[in-house]
Amino acid sequence: MNLNKIFFLIVITFAKMNAQNIKYYSENNEDFADVYVEDNLVFTCRVAGIDNTGPTIILLHGFPETSKMWSKLLPFLSAKNYRVIAPDQRGYSSGARPLKVKDYSAHKLAQDVINIANSFGAKKFHLVGHDWGSAIGWYLSAFNKNRIISYSALAVPHLDAFGDAILNDRIQKKKSTYIKFFRIRFLPEIFFKMSNYANLKRIWTSSDDQEINSYMSVFSQKNALKTALHWYRATKLNSPTKIGDIHVPTLMIYGKKDLAIGEKAVDETKKYMKGPYFLKKTNLTHWLIQDSFETISKEILNHIKKY
């Protein structure tokens, strides 16, 4: 047997091994994949265009949302020949919900994304994140830059700039007071569950009923709120660890009506950008893609197409 045949068999075997770690199915006119990774975790992912021949795009949601927030973007991007994967991240997927706070470090959250990418055979991929998904996107762009083709950050700016603003900027300090509350044990869960989750539902000001119902199908599950809040509890706001300069081509989209993010850190982000960087400020709220899908989807696609 010659070397070419041996190499071909190795590739086929590897692809079959990966395929065994993914279970595909459809539900309510959406395509899903349950992805089995290390540590016995199973991530539920919305997917589109998996058989396409273009590059892979991974979409990361924030709090308190799920991959449902990307339901319109998935077919929009897959129609352009991209393979699109949007996981319900750690704490949100019912099969990836460890109960200890220490299991929600930025390193583990980022490694989840790498493991999911590996399962789909994506050596390199475009990355899009919103809110907490954006935070993990910055982390990945810093420490896994060789895997990221381009990055689109929605709402949350560079982590070093954001951390500095939380500690030193008067406006951002005020906007971030909720974080201290979210870090308290037990009380936030009680608060959000009161009156049939009324306080949680009140956050989704830009979501339609279908999206809210989908979110509630997750957050009403046992321990889902707790583990989603563990992202905040595992975060060290005054940590001396920095992610530093970013070389990945990056698009930052910010809504000037954002109640959680001030402009200080957004404006300071450019100091850390050593590769191509584009900042788009809009008159939208924190919920950018729900506020104006046409604007946000177009910005993301135009950025991705450059690379």
Describe the overall structure.
- Helix content is 43%, strand content 19%.
- It contains 13 helices and 9 strands.
- The chain is globular and about 50 Å long.
- The chain has a single domain (3-305), classed as Alpha/Beta hydrolase fold, catalytic domain (Rossmann fold, 3-Layer(aba) Sandwich), CATH 3.40.50.
- The protein is α/β, with parallel strands linked by helices.
- It has helices at residues 3-20, 73-78, 106-119, 132-143, 159-168, 170-175, 177-183, 187-201, 209-219, 224-233, 263-268, 288-291, 293-305, and strands at residues 22-27, 30-37, 41-48, 56-60, 83-87, 125-130, 148-154, 250-255, 277-282.
- Strand 4, helix 2 (73-78) and strand 5 (83-87) form a beta-alpha-beta unit.
- The longest helix is centred in the N-terminal third of the chain and has 18 residues, at 3-20.
- Strands 1-2-3-5-4-6-7-8-9 form a 9-stranded mixed sheet, with helices on both faces.
- The protein starts with a helix and ends with a helix.
